[in-house]
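Dear V.,

Thank you for sending over the compound details. I've combined the ligand you provided, flavin mononucleotide, with the protein sequence from our construct and run the structure prediction for the complex. I'm sharing the raw inputs here so there's no ambiguity about protonation or stereochemistry in the SMILES, which I know was a concern on your side last time.
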Amino acid sequence: MNEVLEAIKTRRSIRAFTDKKISREDLELLTDAARYAPSGLNRQSWQFTVVQNTQMLEKLAKVIREELNRGADYNFYGANALILASNDRGNPLGMQDCACALENIFLAAHSLGLGSVWINQLNGICDVPSIRAVLSELDVPESHLVYGLAALGYPAENGRPANKKDDVVEWVL
Ligand SMILES: Cc1cc2nc3c(=O)[nH]c(=O)nc-3n(C[C@H](O)[C@H](O)[C@H](O)COP(=O)(O)O)c2cc1C
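Below is the predicted structure of the protein with flavin mononucleotide bound, written out as structure tokens.
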């Protein structure tokens, strides 16, 4: 199997991370992977916001906890860094574009020995004032909606075994 197919098949969502810090170089490789994703009409109206500052990670987790009544343990699984994928709210393909970019991030992270998981809780609550205030502190534009977050770090678990349906392909030959 070639390297790309191998990476696709061996990536799993990781929900436990060590304390090891991700290097700036590796974070740049991940944002590069995101930037090279396809986007509808090649608009690239997205932004990738990298957050590694511990206080800001906690601040964001706290407002999400409060808004969604999540327990004190909600902390993005203790990820070392987040990449927020946001897009102009006027782009009708913004969510799809961000999903492509996030998958690129997940696969690139896996290839670098990093674990990752999609965090979905910001979807739909970006304009709640307490959430938007933190997003503004992170320089996410007011005109953007956050469609997904990549939680990233060195894996402290193997991830769940792949559980992939094999009856979801229809052939018309
Ligand atoms: C749109 C989307 C939203 C997701 N949201 C979350 C989430 O909020 N929290 C989480 O732990 N995993 C989340 N996941 C990860 C899925 O649970 C995971 O991809 C799925 O269980 C399959 O496992 P795998 O990634 O190891 O193949 C999300 C995945 C996608 C594609």
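A first observation: Residues 12-13, 15, 117-121, 159-160, 162 surround flavin mononucleotide (CB under 6 Å).

Warm regards,
I. M.
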